[in-house]
Design brief:
The protein has 251 residues and is an all-alpha fold. The protein has one domain. It contains eight helices and no strands. The C terminus is likely disordered.
Length: 251
Amino acid sequence: MSNELELVLVVLLAEVVPAIVFLYGSYWALAIRRALVSKMYRRQALWLGILTAVLAVSQFVTYSNDQLVTDLINVYYALLFAVVFAYIDSLVPVIRRSDPLLRGILRWGTLRYFIWFDVVLLGIFNVAPGIVPSLAVGVAGYVFEVIGWLTAATLLFGLSGVALFIGARRSGDMVLRSSLKWTGAVLLVTIASFAVDTTEAAFVTHFSYSTFDYFYSYAALPGGVVYIVMGYCFYRAVRALAPVGRIQDES
């Protein structure tokens, strides 16, 4: 297979298809939101629509050979993680109120402070290599980025995902329950995407491989597959809200 055809295939499967899946989920989220009456459901649909749209765009801005662009991307993701957890932190109390027994979820009142600390730590892991160049080279830098960053990301999305699953299981709202299960699945699949992307990116950065040659080769396909699965989970989380209303044909 020629290099040109390989490049087209990789870009299509690793970037274009995942972006299309995310945009499809975002379209449904915003379309369904217009038909919903409940403020809670409308808020859930809006957030899912925004996040899927952002992730669609992110498929094309993740990699760069320019260090300044890379640093800006890292700051962007650090802020995005904080925004995502702020949404989850505001969602958990609402989920608890949907439980007929009003049971607490993982002692969230205390756990949330630990996770917020982890969000700050994750932000530091994102931007530190750009501030301290020694953290971005060699084996030590590889361990810092893969072990440190990935551990912090796993704690953030893992604990948040588990909290949503527990809340979904206890919720008396069947529509919200289904949407929350798929949203929790998104968070857990995100961990897999981080494991693939972070390990590959760190390998390229710290061992002097060409970013273009590495990410625009078949090595990028596993990450693309994981993102397609994530986009599907987003879509199912959105469509779970559909039974509470009917989308009217505006044509």
